[in-house]
Amino acid sequence: MTPNQLFQKAHASYVQGDFPTAIKVCKKILRTNQTYLNAISLLGTIYAETGELPEAKKYLEKADRLNPASAYIKGNLGNVCKMQNDFHSARTYYLQALELDNNVLGVNINLGNILAHVDKDAEAASRCYRKAAEIKPDDFDLIYSFGRSLDILNTAAAIDYYKQALNINPSQIDVYSDLALALLRTKRSDEAATYLRLGLDKSPNNAQLRFCLCVAEGRTPDEDINTEYINSSVQKLFDIYAKDFDNSLVDKLQYSAPVEIPQFLKETVPDIHFKSCVDLGCGTGLIGEEVRSFCDEITGIDISSEMLSIARAKKCYEDLQHGEIIEVLNNSSRRYDLFVAAEVINYIGALEKLFCAVSAKANPNALFVITTERCEGDGYVFQKESFRYAHNREYVEKVAAMNGSTILHVKQIKLRMENNTWVAGELFLIKVN
Ligand SMILES: C[S@@+](CC[C@H](N)C(=O)[O-])C[C@H]1O[C@@H](n2cnc3c(N)ncnc32)[C@H](O)[C@@H]1O
């Protein structure tokens, strides 16, 4: 067989997924013709697909030396470097590929992803995505993924991709809320409300859409809508956020509760020691780790299973329970001496049911420690910018009193950073019942 016939055989085997035969035949070609470009390039492609990256790179570099004008080979070299997490080389090969041919879809997508996720350069990423969207304008998954990549960078450019995605497939409910959230961030509440209503026409019970529509229309979500929202969207939010949570909250945002709470308890509680503690909305266990030394046993409750799995790995809780705090407390037969709710009440809003559940599960002389985001005015307010609630001190006092509980101490704290300013918080020590 001639080298060309052999290559056809190798290529056919590759297409059928028979990689061993394709490799064998390519290598046979190279024994007699060391510079047979297609065989070299195909070997590089196959090794890349099978994850043998150094081999893939070796063959693709050789192919690139033989034909430096191939955007396809440079693109593949970029892909191998990207798989090796060598983003600098990947970026260089992709840029060279685009100089040769600006219309290679995969190169535009992959370069766009590096620019968005590694370089965090929304404008440059958007240029690549725009080109890719021109090449393949009807691919919902692709266009939606561009929106999401740009949305993470908080750029309004995401909006156009979400709109394009909805034009392709208007039945994809998640896009309505992503689009509305992006519009809300750019203060286009009316437009956000329009898309939310369109989404609700298709999915009237969608918790995220119902919650966001309240925000877009300037209404405080009622308790039912808020609970639905916690059960769906807050859970999802923290599932996604879990891996970065400790690093992001403590290191970047200087979250102070893990230091403030134990210090506050030590300052205010004589002979500090608790037989049983429950950490409400325990998250990844930042608080559990700090109060462990003066509690015989700790239970953690959280709605996010991903947050709980990080808490579990820290091995500082005797028991971890998955679910909504009030529901879990109400369905439990256990009682506790110390209740802690750090950075959780700001997702709950109305506190009556929470205080009632705590009070029902408290041992005599139990204490309840909470952090709130502080606000002036009446009761509690929903903060449109952050999607969290802030609570007024009198409201906390009033709800505590309704359950026969007493505020023992209040301390003003700097809770954490947000948009380069401190979030003003309050720390309450409450005697339950
Ligand atoms: C900002 S994190 C704080 C975590 C932890 N308390 C800390 O201080 O590190 C909020 C946590 O509360 C959980 N959460 C919010 N509302 C909840 C609810 N109603 N029931 C259960 N978990 C909730 C979230 O899943 C998340 O893990």
Fold blueprint:
Blueprint: H1 3-15, H2 19-32, H3 37-49, H4 53-66, H5 71-83, H6 87-100, H7 105-118, H8 122-135, H9 140-152, H10 157-168, H11 173-185, H12 189-202, H13 207-216, H14 223-252, H15 257-268, E1 274-280, H16 286-291, E2 295-302, H17 305-314, E3 319-322, H18 325-330, E4 336-341, H19 345-348, H20 352-360, E5 362-373, E6 380-383, E7 388-391, H21 393-402, E8 406-418, E9 421-431
Parallel strand pairs: 1-2, 1-4, 2-3, 4-5
Antiparallel strand pairs: 5-9, 6-7, 8-9
Helix pairs in contact: 1-2, 1-3, 2-3, 3-4, 3-5, 4-5, 5-6, 5-7, 6-7, 7-8, 8-9, 9-10, 10-11, 11-12, 11-13, 12-13, 13-14, 14-17
The chain binds S-adenosylmethionine.
Q: What can you see in these coordinates?
A:
With 433 residues, the chain is α/β, with parallel strands linked by helices. Helix content is 60%, strand content 16%. The chain has a 7-stranded mixed β-sheet with strand order 3-2-1-4-5-9-8. It has a two-stranded antiparallel ribbon with strand order 6-7. A hairpin with a 2-residue loop joins strand 8 (406-418) and strand 9. The longest helix has 30 residues, at 223-252. The protein starts with a helix and ends with a strand. 44% of the residues are buried. The mean pLDDT is 95. S-adenosylmethionine (SAM) binds at residues 230, 234, 238, 257, 281-283, 286-287, 302-304, 307, 324-325, 342-344, 347-348. S-adenosylmethionine binds next to helix 14, helix 16 and helix 19.
